[in-house]
Amino acid sequence: MEYISRPEYEKQLAATRDRRMKWWRDARFGMFIHFGLYSQLGRGEWVQLEENIPVDEYAQLANTFSVIDGAPREWAKLAKDAGMKYMVLTTRHHEGFSLWDSKVNEYNSVNYGPHRDIVREFVDACREFGLGIGFYSSLMDWHHPDAYKAAYDPEARERFLKYIQDLNTELLTNYGKIDILWYDIPKPMETFEGWGSLQRNQFLRTLQPDIIINNRSGLPEDFGTPEEHINFCDTDWEACMTFNGISWGYINSEQAKAYSYSPQKIITMLNTCIEGGGNLLLNVGPKPDGSLPEEVREPLLKVGKWLKENAEAVYTAEKIEIPIGGNGTTYESLSGNNVYLWTRVWSGHPEMGVGGYLKPPKRITLLSTGEEIKFEYKGQRLIMKDLPKECPDKNVGVPVFKLEFEERPEYLRGSYYPQIANGFDRSKGMKI
Ligand code: FHN
User: Fold this and answer.
1) 274, exposed or middle or buried, with CB in 10 Å at 0-12, 13-18, 19+?
2) Does ligand 1 lie within 6 Å of residue 227's CB atom?
3) Which residues 6+ apart lie within 8 Å of 240 measured at CB?
4) What are the domain boundaries of the chain?
5) R_g (Cα) of the chain, nearest Å
6) For ligand 1, is residue 38 a contact (CB within 6 Å)?
7) How far apart are CA 330 and CA 191, in angstroms?
8) Is 240 near ligand 1, meaning CB less than 6 Å away?
9) What is the pLDDT of residues 62-107, one digit of tens each?
10) DSSP assignment letter at 288
């Protein structure tokens, strides 16, 4: 295969990115699944390294690895019910154990443990529920004998890079159309040259021309991956978050519950991602037998119900490049000339105000029901009236008001109060 230079490669990627990523940008919300031998120990996916478990001793876990029938389908069904539009599965984490029928890596879930191709079951389930399909593929490997020597032994590196390419070739050849390749941890080599990523990714893209690749093989590729925090990138980006701020792999459900996110917290994270034009990839670490941990099901089902009722405020929302208003108790999203106020706290008062809109909206409705909301507008002050005492969102308590404007809303926060930044002409201020 003829390989092109990095500038040429990145020019070609840029030319096709909008087409390849439109579904992903609209999707907004996906499910990460961290499942592997480590799930049996319930002490996170780094247990082999953190506890210095010898490779051969750790490998014994392959014999006790047992997965209940239909586990991947349960994951996909919950993702669908949660309003998630794609999934990313750890096909092989740093432990080096492949969850598929690999001819390259005999340390896999067909030769050991469940004697099943979990990746195949995952792909079938994603397709059954109409979800985008992502493969997480670790570069770092704690099992392969060349995985560390590759850092200083050219022959070991050549063998290991071929191994990594062959693993990913199997994944992108044998399971039909795959939508996302999610690399992780480029160690011990630390540059795209060290990993041969420019050549490998060009080759892998010939297998899946529409695939989108994350930025963790040493090249920016298609999207950034802030982890466990949500910070905006200039390029496409997706914040990946654990469900509890502690572990990607399974940890004791009873203990994890106290740390696990509520539906309100998940909706908050989703809004923050949307405001910044990014996606949220929220993780689930299935139990040792592949079943879903109790603490994730209810919050995700509630979020799913909320998303069904407020889809318009989420999936078509745009990156917010202009101030769009809101008040101290709302999050906001924007789509065209419409502003959506995600009301985090229901005051119970008959009125709720929003200051700073320089023109009134044409109409205000409760998004989930379409119910008209009475309002008055005077002096850049919008007051919604006759609001019910009880919060109209009985599910999670986050009702969304849809404000329809004639044109993009002009908004100046605290426009009555020139002493704050937005309304204050600094050039006139006293230099004290
Ligand atoms: O080391 C991994 C970790 O186990 C987990 O898979 C996360 C998910 O983004 N990625 C690496 C840490 O950045």
Assistant:
1) buried
2) yes
3) 32, 225, 226, 227, 228, 281, 282, 283
4) 6-310, 330-430
5) 24
6) no
7) 43
8) yes
9) 999 999 999 999 999 999 999 999 999 999 999 999 999 999 999 9
10) T
CATH of 6-310, one of 3.20.20.80, 3.40.50.620, 1.10.230.10, 3.30.300.30: 3.20.20.80
* Spacing, Cα 143 to ligand 1 middle (Å): 17
State the CATH class of domain 330-430.
mainly beta
**pLDDT for residue 168:** 98
Q: Which residues make beta-bridge pairs with 137? A: 92, 183
pLDDT of residue 227: 97
Residue 417 has pLDDT above 90, yes or no: no
User: What tens digit of pLDDT does each residue of 224-249 get?
Assistant: 999 999 988 889 999 999 999 999 99
Among 120, 114, 115, which residue's Cα sits nearest to residue 72?
120
Helix (H, G, I), strand (E, B) or coil at 239: strand
275 lines ligand 1 (CB under 6 A): no
Closest residue by Cα to residue 269 from 297, 289, 244, 298: 244
Give CA–CA dist 427/429, Å, rounded.
Answer: 6
The answer, yes or no, to whether any atom of ligand 1 lies below 6 A from the CB of 311, is no
177 confidence band (pLDDT: 50, 70, 90): very high
E strand spans, 257-380 = 279-284, 330-335, 338-343, 352-355, 363-366, 371-372, 375-377
Q: Report the distance separating Cα 271 and Cα 159, nearest Å.
A: 45
- Answer yes or no: are the C-beta atoms of 300 and 52 closer than 8 Å: no
Going by the DSSP 8-state scheme, the letter that residue 237 receives in this structure is B
35 CA from centroid of ligand 1 (Å):
12
> Token pair of 287, please?
């139990």
What does the alpha-carbon distance between residue 280 and residue 238 come to, in Å, rounded to a whole number?
A: 6
Please indicate whether residue 309, judged by its CB atom, sits closer than 6 Å to ligand 1. Answer: no
Kindly report, residue by residue over 179-197, the tens digit of the pLDDT: 999 999 999 999 999 999 9
